[in-house]
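Protocol step 4 of 6: structure prediction from sequence.
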Amino acid sequence: SMLDSARPDPATPAAAPAAAPPPRLARAVGRVRIAVEAAPAVRAPALVLLGANEEVVPEESVEALARDLGGPTRLELLPEGWHMLPIDLAAEAALDAAADWMLERAP
């Protein structure tokens, strides 16, 4: 009967339920989605820094975000940078790039 075919076969192991991402990761992913969706509405000039050794965020995603921002945008690759630019090996280069970018806009 159809009812019998809907019952699991006891000889077949049940598939494990998909594990939910840890709450912290889920919040981070949610924030990234919000930022990406809001990017075209950002009209202010923006500096986007990317570490050449980034292993968490795909380079294509960073490039797309920079391209989608609604104002003038500079994407700068930091050769010694990783994921946590302000505290990694490229911290000084990241701070210098940010300071230079701001000084270029000073009256």
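Step 5 (inspection) to follow. The mean pLDDT is 84.
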